[in-house]
Design a protein that fits this description.
Blueprint (H helix, E strand, L loop, with lengths): L6 E5 L2 E12 L4 E3 L6 E2 L4 E7 L3 E5 H5 L17 E2 L4 E5 L6 E4 L4 E6 L5 E6 L2 E6 L4 E7 L4 E12 L2 E3 L2 E8 L20 E3 L3 E2 L1 H9 L4 E7 L1 H8 L15 E8 L6 H9 L4 E5 L4 E5 L5 H7 L15 E4 L5 E4 L8 E7 L4 E2 L5 E2 L1 E5 L4 E5 L3 E4 L1
Parallel strand pairs: 1-30, 16-17, 17-19, 18-19, 19-20
Antiparallel strand pairs: 1-23, 2-14, 3-5, 4-13, 5-12, 6-11, 7-10, 8-9, 10-11, 13-14, 14-22, 15-20, 16-21, 21-22, 24-25, 24-30, 25-28, 26-27, 28-29
Amino acid sequence: MNNQTLFANRRIRINPGVCRLIKRYLKGPGTILAQKNTEIAPHDIIGRYKITGGFSVVNLAKELNVSPGDVPKYLKKTVGDTVYKGELLADRKGLFSSAQIIAPNDSIFESVSSTTGEARFKMIPREFSLTSGVFGVVDNVDRERGEVTIKCVMTEIYGVVGTGSDKEGFLSVISGPGDLVSPSKITAEHRGQILVAGSLLMEETIKQALSNSVSGIICGGLNMDDYLAMVTSFSPSKRIGTEIGISIIATEGFGIIPIGDDFQEVLLRHNSRFAMINGNLGRLLLPSDDANSILTCRKVSLPPQIAQGVKPELSVAEIKPGIKVRLVWPPFMGAQGVVGSVDASPTTLESGISTYLLTVETSKRKIKVPYSNVEIIS
């Protein structure tokens, strides 16, 4: 019988069924429609806003193959007109050649230069609807900021490292937990999604995700050099310019490590559902899809600080048989299991260090490891 009391770090990885405040923002000028204390469902529209696409320039002289001063003779639209994608902008017919210029998008014909022959078009703002994304209760409305705070029930997932600010999107599992995702697997259809992408995320895959406007990525591990290039420092207080346009979470740490079994099970259950990610907190929020969760929200009072989110601190707990642990040292780094037994006396390792060993029972094998090589997970 081991009379020695052994301790290990305890990490919260999954926090299910918790009530939290989340914030939903208008992404452009618009109007908040939500009312305080009302109950809402995921597809309820809580606001509307407009986003402009900026400007576009077409060199009509070059396209028509005429001098800049002659461009007005061939125009089918005048300055100030609204033009729609596919409409005829200019038409030149000739004996040996002709040219037709078609509007590439919906816009307002703003100007044409007699010097360069360039025409400038202002994109027509597009209107979007902001949906709640969750079952919950509207806790607060800030119309000046275009912000709605919603109280809802969700599952929190916390990874080991990450980077990036609040993002949102539908969760999409694109690989198995131990796969290495190639850049070619991320396409335009993943725009605005949060991807679950295997054991290691490489630089080229991150660039491909950025070019396709992916909101976030969950992976098992990151390359340390790539991570430092994104965040500049391990210390959150010293990070500057860390927002690269995407939020990333490595659930297990650095290196080629599969996403943990505990995470994979939850992520698969939430596949194709709305989620929110904050890489700087290493946190993924998975809202409940149970309409009855609104009843729980009604019963719970939360301080405003909860909306900001705080990554749980590591704590210390006693190692006992039956407790769930995660191995944090090679060669079985990332493996999860249950402590089967704790040796009654210390063992001297090849390195000369004397330490107590644990028998950890995983789904595939029993592993004998030093007690310092595990962390308790929940």
